[in-house]
Specification:
By secondary structure, the chain is mainly alpha-helical. Helices cover about 70% and strands about 0% of the residues. It has one domain. It contains eight helices and no strands. The longest helix is centred in the N-terminal third of the chain and has 27 residues.
């Protein structure tokens, strides 16, 4: 495994991971929001305002921004672990500080600490996953996944735990901003889309054995 990864290779790996997550976010956004397109977005939305996406004029861009919030921090955390050889605990401390700054800057009370704590669990899970990918010999996302996980069952177990972690974040967010039928339907549709797309990807990386 590449314990001492050259900066250029590390950049390639991280960019491929980032692009894979962005592609997932875009696919989910298209499925739950339709083909709505907007110009270049010029706003910053507090993370996890998923409920308000239903009313936002540029909801597709806002959705992708929110979906990638934890993924971005997790990838930075994993990169720190590889590039600077810091421990997971030390890297997670940086992630805690980053989310803490967002919490401190929230003046509308939509980013509660219970949401942040569940995000940190998701970030830790993702950071471990990204770290496993980065230290493989593979460069493309598919190559990294196939080398990092020894078998289909192991990868599906990670996907199951990630889906559950994201659900806990979503439910904490709903509890914070308030539940209604529209927001519950939106979250349910989003979660089902994420699960379906990740299952399709798993079948590509590790084709099921047909007996």
């Amino acid at each position: 495994m590449l314990r001492n990864i050259l900066p250029r290779i590390l950049d390639t790996k991280c960019n491929n991971i980032r692009q894979a997550e962005k592609s997932l976010a875009e696919a989910v956004a298209f499925e739950v929001l339709g083909g709505y397109q907007a110009g270049v977005w010029d706003f910053i939305m507090p993370p996890l305002l998923v409920v308000n996406l239903l009313r936002h004029k540029r909801k597709r861009e806002a959705f992708i921004l929110n979906f990638l919030f934890t993924k971005k921090i997790a990838l930075e955390t994993a990169r720190d672990m590889v590039e600077r050889n810091v421990s997971r605990d030390a890297a997670m401390q940086i992630a805690e500080e980053a989310t803490g700054k967002v919490l401190a800057s929230d003046t509308k009370g939509v980013y509660a600490d219970k949401v942040r704590q569940r995000q940190l669990r998701e970030i830790e899970l993702l950071a471990g996953h990204y770290y496993k990918l980065i230290i493989t010999e593979g460069k493309t996302y598919e190559e990294m996944v196939e080398e990092a996980y020894s078998e289909r069952r192991e990868y599906l177990d990670f996907v199951r735990r990630l889906n559950q972690a994201e659900k806990e974040v979503n439910h904490a967010a709903l509890a914070t901003v308030g539940r209604n039928e529209a927001s519950l339907n939106f979250i349910n549709k989003m979660e089902k889309a994420v699960e379906r797309i990740r299952q399709t990807d798993a079948d590509k990386y590790f084709p099921p054995v047909i007996s």
